[in-house]
Amino acid sequence: MCGNNMSAPLPAIVPAARKATAAVIFLHGLGDTGHGWSEALAGIKSPHVKYICPHAPVMPVSLNMNMAMPSWFDIIGLSPDSQEDEVGIKQAAENVKALIDQEVKNGIPSNRIILGGFSQGGALSLYTALTTQQKLAGVVALSCWLPLRASFPQGPLSGVNKEIAVLQCHGDCDPLVPLMFGSLTVEKLKRMINPANVTFRTYSGMMHSSCIEEMMDVKQFIDKYLPPVD
């Protein structure tokens, strides 16, 4: 990916069944790898779409007593006023932008790429989409929040993704990233980008995980914003 990240293994990839004309880059949550999500996405795949699930580098995480685990950036605490790893978040976003550039080099235009993720990966996908100069097709943000939210404007975003489509999903029984974080994030997004393009779905009884109903909503979103071109 980048010179500073040679230790992370190559992404788990679900190749397109025919020529790939679109891609989904999906980032896993803290302590996980890309393999589980590549399997989940294989279950809802479209034949013209390539699914890329990178693995986060292993690093010590403050929240977990500095134990080393796969993590996109350091997490210091889980309350809304916890200090954030600004340097780590910005570096991780640069690494994701490099992944997008790689797909563009492979022949898939950036506006045919959806960025997505779960929990910490969803947070990073939102942050990257709102700060990149690469025009994207959409963002799928599952059980997550917007990092460094104070660094964003109070009003509308300028930049190439000010009209981007966002599907945000959250379980109403999430004990780790409470539903309130999702609700506050969606309110902030609706002030920054066209509110008509922001969809917020909640799932009754779902904890910090996914469910079939959510995956079907994700599939519908991907099919809508990455339709076949041939």
TrEMBL record:
Keywords of this entry: Acetylation, Cell membrane, Cytoplasm, Endoplasmic reticulum, Fatty acid metabolism, Hydrolase, Lipid metabolism, Membrane, Nucleus
EC number(s) reported in the record: 3.1.2.22
Domain Phospholipase/carboxylesterase/thioesterase, chain residue ranges per copy: 11-225
InterPro entries per UniProt: AB_hydrolase_fold, LYPA1-2/EST-like, PLipase/COase/thioEstase
Any one annotated GO CC term: endoplasmic reticulum
Pfam families (alphabetical): Abhydrolase_2
Location within or outside the cell: Cell membrane; Cytoplasm; Endoplasmic reticulum; Nucleus membrane
Organism: Nyctibius bracteatus (Rufous potoo)
Function: Acts as an acyl-protein thioesterase. Hydrolyzes fatty acids from S-acylated cysteine residues in proteins such as trimeric G alpha proteins or HRAS. Acts as a palmitoyl thioesterase that catalyzes depalmitoylation of proteins, such as ADRB2, KCNMA1 and SQSTM1. Acts as a negative regulator of autophagy by mediating palmitoylation of SQSTM1, decreasing affinity between SQSTM1 and ATG8 proteins and recruitment of ubiquitinated cargo proteins to autophagosomes. Acts as a lysophospholipase and hydrolyzes lysophosphatidylcholine (lyso-PC).
Entry-linked SUPFAM superfamilies: alpha/beta-Hydrolases
Protein name: Acyl-protein thioesterase 1
Superkingdom classification of source: Eukaryota
Assembly and binders: Homodimer.
